[in-house]
Each structure stands twice: as structure tokens, then as C-alpha cells.
């Protein structure tokens, strides 16, 4: 299975690529040979060899932490490889900075967009472009040379050869010595003029940019300001930016992570257009179905090493997963039937404003039931974070009610509205919250495991800290959840993403909650860690906990959750049964183009479809 | 190599260190201190054309030459230590308080004010008590005003505390003008309400107080709930909110503590040492304390060492200048400044690792080696790794020793 190139300095082999028996001639656009990169003692890439051909889409597949992004960052000049060689069109190149990468026509579209919010899209695209260099000496020589040539032509001009009334148009002009001198003397002004024209008259360039957008089939108005654009439009702007700078090799880092299914389809159409235009496209992803849908070939990385590159048509998802993980894994999530469900947390008419007074939550109502997993789907930033924080007492509510039914007191209702986290805890509400920002909110990165356990328990006792029971808890979690850490005294910042999440979820579950809220608990985790987390959530469900799971991967939400609530722009656009949910309809609801009430069967075509009135 | 490289590899590149053992960090810091001392000794000897050994000798004489020198050394180190410790909890909380100068000055002023107006009217013991209370309250006030603004309206604490310094300075200037109408413009030392001299000197009391505060702060930061809350707020206010810490309360409470410690330093200066006040009473020690606190990595024990080093430097260089017949005190300050600079630069090497470009010859050689190694790809890593990485790997095993830093 492993097709590993030997390291070192092989002469570039290129030009011929045999595929499936029939020889297809393809030109190599970029070749990597023996690329190694280490960060401290972490080997991010180890002796990677990779070829990308012109006019193909190559997927780089690997788990989180397998070195996909690091590898691409070295091509785009953000990191410099410790070892290895990069060849572009057969020539060895050294890429020290993103500028060098642009010079070699490589453009990268990062996961986190780098745009100026208050500029228009076109301005963002043009931003940073340099005025062509005006070399005074060279220009002067050019002018003098041109005049000399024209004068010569004038001398040799024979009028008899060009008869007719329009002859004067082709007649060369004579430049007197005085004229030449004058023009040469004015040359510096011409340079300044060009510069002024470049800096102040950028309007025409906006049209050029729009042309590029139209050519590749982007439907976007580039005169809009960035803050008015949706996430997918921002991504489009990034892509046009790269194309405008003349990139032939485009690298997209997890481009689909923030998109709805419909937007993903649109993006893929664009990518196919670009491929047809002869561009090489590298897309970094860990979603198998997308790999199968879009790419020509797949390069699999595991733990920084290049495992293999295979033709997409000759492989399948199971095989790719095995290459990616290194062993057989089952891709199914268990879902047991919930029984004996009771309302545990009821939210009704919840409305909240952001700092500018804009509604981030608009009349949100739902129930979370014990022994059930309620999924929350929505485009990133649709109010998921504010909703969970409002329940946890961290976000100010303008209107609405949050009621908790205490299982210890025979389901007596407890009002949670506008309570601080400490007040909520003092009311005996066992609410655990795994926030989206693990190291910035759930944990303290620079503190060790024990001190992080203590976050929940340090209030007990008088004046001084008790580090004994947190130590015990940390040891239990390390053992039970198989956290890989040198010791419980290691700063959590130094653990890998999966282990950080295990520590956080472990701590929250250790509080034996009756409501467990988890925001994007598997973001950035490898497959095995993700499944550990799913299993933990399922265990909690079995223990009659009301689980609220905010997810981004619709496939996972549909497989794991009993009910899925979809929100769009702070409004609930539907609550559907996870067993009968339809991915495309959820996608439409995420974009606010479809509303659906709870109980309406999704598979039923007669469902009332209301187009969004706004 | 077949292709000749037109573009060159960068000569050096910097790699951020993931982690360096605590003891190694301290080894680098101590090395930098020793190195910088040697460097300025050499520099001074070159500039002043004297023997470097003489310079070293005078440095030590300046700090420890006579009994009086020793007393002054420990007294100044103790005062600097108290001020440095005072700013430490605020810094730990990432509250960039540079107002220690003003807080100390206004407290010293307050104690002198009490001595000036109440001297002779009440018994000395009562007077000392009154000036202590007055100093404490005004010192705390000076620290807590910016804290309240920061906690409630998120104002910039750096600018705010800096402005508070100027207010303190102007109050002192104004009062001296009012108290001393003569042209000398200096308030002569007051005799009533002075702190008792223990063992015949003003230094013993300062040292005792400094030791007490060091131990207190060490325990407070490491073992108390308050100290833990300070660390959490400093690391991430979001996390603090998430676990239900009242962030404004912690900010204000910590600055009360910080202001109180500054006030104690001011009280010791005003009532115990100077018995008078002028705009040079604190003499920039409030700002030096910021440096000391940083160099000590907010660890009270390390701060003890650092304040001794800083005081040693300034005493030593001043003495050297005097001995070489240079009355210009600024040269001593330049020398001290260079020394600090070197110590601070070394922090860079604690955070980053510098990797030099490999020579072409070496690269080619390694390539051959790799080719010879053939399929055994696992071996390639070790061959390619340089010494540093292996060292770092070893660090991982010693990780437990990192412990918790305060």
C-alpha cells in the first residue's frame, strides 16, 4: 500500500503520467521531493513527495494533525521547509515568502479569510498590488531608441510606394533633436503620472476583476463591502483574489467546512471550471464524500507522512479511511431509541441582541429532553454560540424564558433566566457546557491538567486550594479516556486537539450533568477521537441526560441525533426527526429558504414549504 | 546538484520553541546576567582606559565595600523588592499597571504629610499608626481608580496609571511649594513620627517587611483561591466568566492588594528612610519594578534575586564612575541600561530557536547518506534531525519538572 519515495535529491521525473493502462500525457505543475518540517519535537511533515499535474484537482486527505496544512503552507511560502526541494514546471524554486509563492503563480485560500471588512470586495482583491516598476534610465533609453528608429524610417520613406489620399497616416514622423530632449527631460513626470494613475484611478481595475469573476462563473457583485457578504461569498472573494494575481496553482484549505450542501455544489462547479481552464487545484479536506465527488486523484497523509496517491476512480471511501487512519475503522455511529423521555430544559421565545443591538437570537423556542440528543445545525455564526451561552448564564437575554426541570426535585421547574453561572450552580442545576473555544473558554491553555480540573471545583473549602481531588480526577480522566499526555502536570496547550477535548469533555461529564451542552465537540479532532466523543455523548444519553449537540457535519448530525433543530440568522427554521431527516432540506433550512415545523414529516412531499419572506 | 539555485535559502530562520524546561530558562537568564555584567565591565574598562579587574573590584566595592554600603544595598534592594512584588499580581492578571511610581510616591507623601501637620501634636506611636493608615488608603485609592475604570468600562489601564503618576507628582510639587516658601524648595527631614530604627539602622525594618511580603505573596499566588482566580483571569477572561468568576471583582480586589503593597513601600520610604518627600523620592523605582517583575517571570522568589541584581548594578556602576573620576552619573545609567538590554534580549532565545542555513556541502553530503540508507525511512529522521531537536525530545521526558510557575 505504501508508495513512499526515497528522500533526497532525485532529478525531477515529469511529463509522462500513465493512468489505468491508457497513457495520458500530463504536465507536472509542481513537484515536492523529500519535504520535511519539524516544529520543536513535533514532526509535521516527514520526507513527503508529491506531484500535482496541470488541469487536475488533487485532494490532500488526512486526519487533523496529519500535516496537510503545514505541507501546503510550505508551498505557499508561510513556512520554510527544513529539508527537501520544490520544483515548479521542472525548475527548482525556493519559496521564502507568500510573495515568492505569487511570483511562482501559487495562491492559497486559507480556512480563515484574510479580508478587510470595510473595503469593497474589488478593493480587497486589488489590495497590495504593486505599481509596475518605472525604471527611468531604461525608459529614457527606450524613448531615445524609438525616436532614432522612427527618424531612420522617415529618411528611408519613399512616398511613391504609398500612393493614395490616406498615405499621410502611414508616414513616419520626424523627431527633432529638440523634441527628443524635451521628452527625455519630462520623463520623470511621466513616471509620477503613471503612479498617480495607478493609485487613484483604480475603478477600471475593478472591472477587470469583475471580468475574471464572470469568466469563471462566480455570481457575485464585487462592489459590495465585505461585511455585507456571506461566508461563502467571502470565500469566493478569496478565490477571485488568487485568480486575479494570476495563480495557476490554487490551494484551498478545507473550503467546505463553512458551507451548506448547496454552496458546496456551487463551489465544486467553480472548481471544475477552473480545472477546465488548465489550473491545478489542490484541496485539503478530511471529508471523504467530497474527495470522491470532486477530485481526480487523492494524496493521503498520515502523521506527516505521504502514504499514497491514488486515482479517485479506482478507490472507495473505506479504502481511503484505512489509509488515512492506518487501520480498519467502522464509520457507523450507534443510535439507540430514546425511551421514557421527559422535558428537561424548555426554552421559549428567547431573544438576545449583540453589541450593536442586532438580534442574534430571535424568538427561539425548543425543548431538550432527557435521554435524547438534540442536534443544532446551522451555518457558523447563526447564533449557536449565543444560544448555548445564554442558557449557561453567560450571554445577556433580552426576552424569553429558560426553564429547567429538576430531576432531583420531582421535575420541579427552575427559572434560569438571567442567572449567572454561579447562581445556576447554587440552584442545584447540573448543567455542563463544552464550549466551542476549548482553550479560550473551557480550559486554560497554560495551566496543567490538575489546575484545569480545579476550574470547576476550586470554590470548595476555605481560602486555600485543594489540589488533591482535582489530581485524582485528572488521573481518572487520563486513564479512562486514554488521554495521551506526558503527565498530569503538563500544560493542556501542549496536548493535541483530541486530547484537549477529552480533558474538557471528561471534566464536564465528571460533574454528572442532567443537561450536557456541547458546541462543535469534534471540530479539529481525528476520526478515533471523534468516535470517542460520539460514544461519550451516547453514554450520557443512556444515563438520561438531555444532550444538546451543536455540530457542523450534517452527516454526523443525521446519524447521531434524535432530533435536529436548524437555525438560520438567530431564528429556528425547523426541528426535524434525525431518523427521517433529509440532508438537502436541512441545507435549505440552514440558508433560511425553507421553514418546517416540528412533527412535519420531511419525506412527505406535500410538506408546506414557505419561502423566506424577508 | 543538477539545478543551480538562482534563489537562495534564507540565511537564518527562526522557529518558535514549543517548550523549554524551567531550569534551562533560568540557566539562560542567569547566564545572560553574568554575561552582561562581564560585558559592561569590559566596556567600562575600555571607555575609561582602566583595568577590567579594577572595574569588577569597584563594582563589588560599590555594593558591599563598607558596612554602610551593605546596609544601603539591602535597604534599597528591599524597597525595590516590595514595589516589584506589588506590581506582580496585577501583571499576572495581565493588568499592565505602570502606576507603581505614583502609588509609592503618593503614599510616601501622605506619611510625610501626617508627620508635617501632626508632628508634636500627638504621640509618636499614634502618629506612626495614623500615617500608616493614611498611606495605605491613598496608595490603594491610586491603584483602585484605574482598576474600577478598567473593570467597568474597559479603559486602557496603562495610560490611566501613567496619568495617575503625573497627578501624584504634581500634588507633591504643589505641597512642597506650599510648605517650604524659601527658595531652596526642599523639605528638610522631619523628626517626629519616624519609624523606629531596629539594630541601629533604617534597613532592618525594610528587610523584615520585604521578607514578610515575599512569603505572603508566594503563598497567596500559589496556594490561595484568590491567586488561582488571578491566574485564570490573566490567562483568559472568557474562561473566567465561563466558570463563574466575577472578573471585575477580581480586578479590583487584586489592585487593592497591589496598591496596598505599594503604599507599604511608600510608607517605609517616607516615614522610615527619607523622613521627607520630593519629586525624586521614588526616583524611577516604580518603573524599574516593572522590569524586575518581568525578569523574575512573576515568581516572587525569582523577583528577590532580580531586585538584588538590579540594585547591585546601579550601586556598582555609580561607584565605578566615582572611582574613575567621572562625575557624570548618566554614564552609570547607560551602563545599567546596556546590561538590562542584554538580559531582555536573551528572552528572545528562550522563546525562539535560531536555525542557520546549512552549507551546500553539508546538504549534498546528507543526501548521499540518505540515498545510502535506502528503504529504511525511519532512520532518515534521526539522520536529518539536528542536535537541538534531540535535546528537545529529551525535554519532553523531564516534563514533570516544569511544575506550576507562579
3D architecture notes:
The complex is a heterodimer of chains A (614) and B (406). With 614 residues, chain A is an alpha/beta fold. Chain A folds into 4 domains: 16-105 and 248-325, P-loop containing nucleotide triphosphate hydrolases (Rossmann fold), CATH 3.40.50; 123-151 and 174-239, no CATH class; 338-430 and 513-614, P-loop containing nucleotide triphosphate hydrolases (Rossmann fold); 441-511, no CATH class. Chain A contains 21 helices and 22 strands. A 6-stranded mixed sheet of chain A has the order 8-9-10-5-11-12, with helices on both faces. A 6-stranded mixed sheet of chain A has the order 18-19-20-15-21-22, with helices on both faces. Chain A has a 4-stranded antiparallel sheet with strand order 4-3-6-7, with helices on one face. In chain A, β3 (28-39) and β4 (42-53) form a beta hairpin. Chain B is mainly alpha-helical and 406 residues long. Chain B folds into 2 domains: 1-50 and 328-406, no CATH class; 67-323, Orthogonal Bundle (ABC transporter involved in vitamin B12 uptake, BtuC). The longest helix of chain B is centred in the middle third of the chain and has 30 residues, at 124-153. In chain B, 41% of the residues are buried. Mean pLDDT of chain B is 81; it is low at 1-6 and 360-406.
Summarize the structure.
The complex is a heterodimer of chains A (614) and B (406). With 614 residues, chain A is an alpha/beta fold. Chain A has four domains: 16-105 and 248-325, Rossmann fold (3-Layer(aba) Sandwich), CATH 3.40.50; 123-151 and 174-239, no CATH class; 338-430 and 513-614, Rossmann fold, CATH 3.40.50.300; 441-511, no CATH class.
